[in-house]
């Protein structure tokens, strides 16, 4: 959808360059500026939306606590009794 804004912005810029009317040129230039901004915002939101994580993949607090307990148990099991734990 955002590529349509780019095409319309280029078309509006082309019309602004070819017209002899000053009022039409100003309107077309403002329209092309607005369409280019909409294209950039749409392109950026698509890029960010594609790279964002899914909420389903997030770990709930109970699962995080369980994983921390497992990691701490492994760390305690590998540390010899006479040495202090690593920081």
What can you see in these coordinates?
The structure is a single chain. With 87 residues, the protein is mainly alpha-helical. It has a domain at 1-49. Helices cover 75% and strands 0% of the residues. It is built from three helices and no strands. It has helices spanning 2-18, 22-51, 61-78. Helix 1 (2-18) runs antiparallel to helix 2. The chain is rod-shaped and about 90 Å long.
What tags apply to this protein structure?
single chain, 87 residues, mainly alpha, 3 helices
Can you lay out the helices and strands and say which pair or pack?
Blueprint: H1 2-18, H2 22-51, H3 61-78
Helix pairs in contact: 1-2
The N- to C-terminal Cα distance equals 52 Å
Task: Give me the number of helical elements.
Answer: 3
Order of helices and strands: HHH
Percent helix, as a range, is: over 70%
The best one-word shape is: rod-shaped
- Secondary structure class reads mainly alpha
* Oligomer kind: single chain
Strand content: under 5%
* Overall pLDDT level: 87
Radius of gyration from the CA trace?
A: 29 Å
Low-confidence stretches: none
Q: How would a textbook summarize the main sheet? A: none
Count the beta strands. 0
């Amino acid at each position: 959808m955002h590529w349509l804004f780019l095409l319309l912005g280029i078309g509006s810029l082309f019309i602004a360059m070819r017209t002899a009317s000053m009022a039409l040129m100003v309107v077309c230039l403002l329209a092309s500026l607005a369409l280019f901004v909409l294209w950039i915002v749409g392109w950026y939101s698509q890029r960010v939306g594609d790279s964002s994580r899914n909420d389903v993949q997030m770990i709930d607090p109970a699962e995080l606590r369980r994983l921390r307990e497992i990691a701490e148990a492994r760390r305690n099991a590998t540390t010899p009794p006479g040495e202090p734990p690593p920081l």
